[in-house]
Specification:
Helices cover 77% and strands 0% of the residues. With 244 residues, it is mainly alpha-helical. The protein has 2 domains: 130 residues, no CATH class; 107 residues, Homeodomain-like (Arc Repressor Mutant, subunit A).
């Protein structure tokens, strides 16, 4: 085992200076994880930026990996794992958190260029931190948690208050009033907020057209998707993609 470890070091650590930079980037990984745990996206992105400075330094001064894209995908998957585990430490596992995770994994695996990795990681930071903030704004009981879980399980399907009420064997007006009384939010706004959060992830990937994104997150009409997106994001889907 010791021999295998020595061979690994000889093949990956080029000199003493390189070893020092490896230790330093590990420090930034720890700072990154701490910032995520504290729900501080600004500090998380700063730590990530410093980490990628070391990656660029390695590629300039040493032999880079033969497959840069595979290395970038693996690195981004690693950071996704750190973010997602921190999220689960902060709160009970939720269906929507899992949905966010699946969409991120999809966009990571569809990465076309290594230099997309940093932007995708920043997207993950924003998405999860925004989600934690949204949870803090909603006070939930067993009833409203059940409604939210049902929403999250069907977020990409046709979904209305009437459909939810049918699932729960309740009157739609009663469901809406009780949910709003407990959470302060309309059910339709919650559904759209969740869908727009997923849409933002897809829009940061060049693999999906705006129309594809609309259908992917549960909208049956791309024009309506644009209106809802503008309401929640303040810009059109196309503008959001351009400014990403």
């Amino acid at each position: 085992m010791a021999h295998k470890y020595q061979v690994f070091l000889e093949n990956t650590i080029h000199d003493h200076n390189h070893l020092q930079t490896v230790y330093e980037r590990l420090d930034y990984i720890l700072l990154f994880k701490e910032a995520i745990s504290n729900n501080n996206p600004k500090e998380a992105k700063e730590a990530m930026a410093r980490f990628y400075e070391y990656i660029a330094y390695d590629h300039q001064n040493y032999v880079p990996p033969e497959d840069l894209l595979a290395a970038a995908i693996g690195r981004t998957q690693f950071f996704h794992g750190l973010i997602y585990s921190a999220l689960l430490d902060l709160l009970a596992p939720s269906v929507f958190a899992y949905s966010l995770s699946l969409v991120h994994i999809e966009t990571i695996n569809q990465m076309k260029k290594p230099d997309e990795a940093f932007a995708i990681t920043c997207t993950m930071i924003d998405t999860y931190c925004e989600y934690v903030q949204s949870l803090k704004r909603i006070q939930t009981s067993d009833f409203s948690t059940k409604v939210l879980t049902l929403i999250d399980l069907n977020i990409k399907n046709v979904l209305t208050t009437h459909i939810l009420a049918d699932h729960l064997h309740l009157n739609p007006d009663y469901l809406q009033k009780k949910f709003k009384a407990e959470t302060g939010r309309n059910i339709t706004d919650i559904i759209n907020e969740r869908r727009i959060a997923l849409a933002k992830i897809y829009l940061r990937s060049s693999q999906f057209s705006v129309t594809d994104v609309a259908y992917e997150v549960g909208f049956s009409d791309a024009s309506y998707f644009g209106k809802v997106f503008r309401k929640f994001a303040g810009v059109t889907p196309g503008q959001f993609r351009k400014n990403k």
